[in-house]
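lol ok so funny story. i was supposed to be doing the assay writeup but got distracted and ended up predicting the structure for this chain instead. priorities right. anyway since i did it might as well share w the group, maybe its usefull for someone
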Amino acid sequence: MGKKGGGNKGGSGGKSKGAPSGDAQQQKEKKGGTAVKVRHILCEKQSKSLEALAALQNGEKFNEVASKFSEDKARSGGDLGWMTRGSMVGPFQDAAFALQKSTVANPIYQQVKTKFGYHILMVEDKK
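and the output, tada:
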């Protein structure tokens, strides 16, 4: 009846435990890592988010714009801290892991709409 029985089950030749293989590590890096240190500005109305975008485009620091415009608990400069894959809503997560790292003084940001409103987000670090 072939090779159904046997003592070494494990799906991938018994290498499923321990550190990720080189291929798995490369896939993780392609996706942007497993965690991001993110800041955001959340506005319920699009018009307010456009005002925040204009302030950023005029050279204001991201944390200062977040303190002025954000309508959530992250008003202290928009800092959400480290967030892992699966802990954020879809469009926000996709944008967060796609963005390059930047600083509050010279942010690289993206605007996304979620069920919570209009977010402008930037990523300070990745791991």
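DSSP finds four helices and four strands in the chain. Strands lie at 35-43, 79-84, 109-114, 117-126.
back to the writeup now i swear
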